[in-house]
Design goal:
The chain is α+β, with helices and mostly antiparallel strands. It has 2 domains: 142 residues, Trefoil (Acidic Fibroblast Growth Factor, subunit A) (Trefoil), CATH 2.80.10.50; 32 residues. It has 1 helix and 12 strands; from the N terminus they run ββββββββββββα. The C terminus is likely disordered.
């Protein structure tokens, strides 16, 4: 799928410029303006045996779930709650089929016999998130989501720095040591000569 890759993390942005958000109660879902929040991060899992069916796992390890409970908010009609769950055994409530609509996607629940889509409502409906079988009077924009890829950045390990040596410094060290050796030999030779003179003079006396 163009927008989703198995194992990758994404953010889903509604047409209200808010992000699908897993709340820290680890049960409910909403929309949030803060894209940097961990709650806006969803990991993509492909459903085995299907090329175009996914699960979306929140930062709490729970899945975006199309529940059978009605969302009781004025004006939402037959909207149903969307939650975070970890069903056991895994079932179709956490399975979604992405459908491309222009530059957006819609997420269709595979749990219901009728087409029911993930819906991000506006401020008059408290920026709620539900799933909903669209009707003639449905605001279709509320079903559209933009997918933003989350790219992981890794910092390369620092490389050990080489000794700070100037060009030719090794050769200079060698020459310097040789010169010191020559001077030492000369000093020893002078000392030996002085001793010899002293011995010779003592014999003469």
């Amino acid at each position: 799928m163009e927008f989703f890759h198995n194992g990758n993390a994404v953010r889903l942005r509604s047409h209200h410029q808010r992000y699908l958000f897993a709340k820290d109660d680890q049960e409910t879902v909403g929309q949030d303006k803060d894209r940097s929040s961990n709650g806006t991060r969803w990991t993509v899992e492909f459903v085995t045996g299907f090329n175009s069916v996914i699960r979306l796992k929140s930062c709490y390890g729970k899945y975006l779930t199309a529940s059978d409970q009605p969302l009781i908010l004025e004006g939402l009609g037959s909207s149903m709650k969307v939650a975070q769950t970890r069903p056991s055994p895994v079932d179709s409530t956490i399975e979604w089929e992405p459908i491309r609509v222009g530059q957006h996607i819609r997420l269709k629940s595979r749990h219901h016999s009728v087409d029911s889509f993930l819906r991000g409502s506006g401020r008059f409906r408290l920026y709620s998130v539900s799933h909903y079988p669209p009707q003639e009077d449905t605001d279709r924009d509320s079903l559209d989501w933009n997918v933003e890829q989350i790219h992981e950045h890794t910092t390369p390990a620092p490389q050990p720095s080489a000794p700070n040596r100037t060009p030719g410094s090794g050769q200079g060290d060698t020459i310097g040591k040789w010169q010191q050796g020559v001077e030492t030999v000369g000093a020893i030779a002078g000392l030996v000569g002085a001793i010899a003179d002293l011995v010779s003079n003592s014999r003469c006396g």
